Amino acid sequence: MSDTTPGTWLRRFHPAPDAPAELVCFPHAGGSAAYWFALSRLLTPTVEVAAVQYPGRQERHREEPLRDLHVLADRIAAALGPGGRRPRLLLGHSMGASLAYEVAVRLARTSGGAPAAVLVSGRPAPSRHRFGDDRPDDDRALLARMRALGGTGTALLDDPELLGLVLPVLRADHAALAAYRPTAAPPLDCPVVGLTGDRDSEATPDEVAAWGAHTTGPFALRTFPGGHFFLSDRFAEAAAEVSALVSGVSAARA
Question: Staple partner for 113: which of 25, 82, 109, 206, CB 3.0–4.6 Å?
Answer without folding.
Answer: 82
